[in-house]
Amino acid sequence: MKSFDVVIIGGGPAGIQAALSARHAYPDKSIVVIRKEIVSLIPCGIPYTIGTLESVKADIMPDTPLINSNIEIIIGEVQKRENKKLILNTGEKIGFDKLVLATGSTPALPGIIGIDKDGIYTVKKDYDYLEQMREAARGANRVLIVGGGYIGVELADELLKLGKSVTLVELLSHLLATSLDCEFNEAVEEELTRRGCQVLTGSRVESFAGNRKVTGAYLSDDRFIEADFVIVSVGYKPNSSIAEMFGLKVDKQYGIVVDEYMQTSDKDIFAAGDCAITKNCFTGKNTAIMLASAAMAQGRLAGANLFEIKLVKSFPGTLGTFSTKIGDLAIGASGLTEQQAKAMGVDYVIGTTEAPDRHPGKLPGASKIRMKLVFARHCHILLGAQLTGGDSVGELTNMLSVMIQKKMTDMEIDTIQIGTHPLLTSSPIAYPVIGAAVNSILKWYK
Known about the structure:
The chain is of the alpha/beta class. Helix content is 25%, strand content 28%.
């Protein structure tokens, strides 16, 4: 039997980060990552394996960081625990002192009649499955995507690039409805529609048609959508089955119950990533948002504090920071939307601006940034941001996320020092982050 000081179950972002963090914090400890997959995939890159990437293989997460850090990798599935000993499906026994569960999440399956027909796929983090899905997608003509979240709209964009006829069905009134206000939702919908996608919001798929293989879907408004390839992407659920088997405290909806240091109900077992409960940083309530960035923050916190607290609690909960690109339109969001602030009863002020991300705006590659900031009215703290534009949106979103986390006020943002260049950024006179903050200041100042 092999024994290790630290055993991590799961090879995704949370597991890898927990392993690396443990190595940095405890250089003399023996560490192993146990995963069932021969290779790990980069989760955020999965939608692009259908079109943009040359193959699923191009989305493999390298093992080099683990190998270079003297962290062992074992391929296998944990089937049983006996005190501080794990038994794998191979029969191998692994002893541990501290254990980290980073078992991720699995696609949620809605109760749609006929969902088990051939030609219907979910978005799994499984290499062989994605190879099959890629081949089926490329051979399809009429595609139906069920679910208008980030993965759904990214897949729609990819399949449009392949020249497919695409229909996207979303139950809520807008695409990306849980992270954007309507003026930004509508920009996404307009871009997809402009590129030939049929966007159907406020509609539900009631059943799938076809004998063995799917031929289409019946919607709640009695429409029939023809399709020879379907992707169902309506969210994920925490993979907490191992935790339940181990007798740990688990919330069926949100995952493994952990404290602020990611410790479970067993003092020697930690959990991080999609499998563990994540809280909203504004409300302190459990949230179903699952992000690789949050998973890595949790993994870093767990790995550093396995044997003693070396990293004082620094993960306040998730902001819900997103960015994506649909066609030529980049979209970013972090923190509270206006609708969420209103629902929480927050007294807020909105700041908006539009400005090119190059100066002058006639330079090649320039795009117009459209930005909306949400500030608390009385304490002036930045609560949320949404923006659209070109590729610069990605890093501007990250910048705004840091500002929200640091509780920067509108006046502090107005006086930040920035570096600008005609080929790289907006003009210092019309820098969008500052411009939106000033727009908000003018509203409360008056």
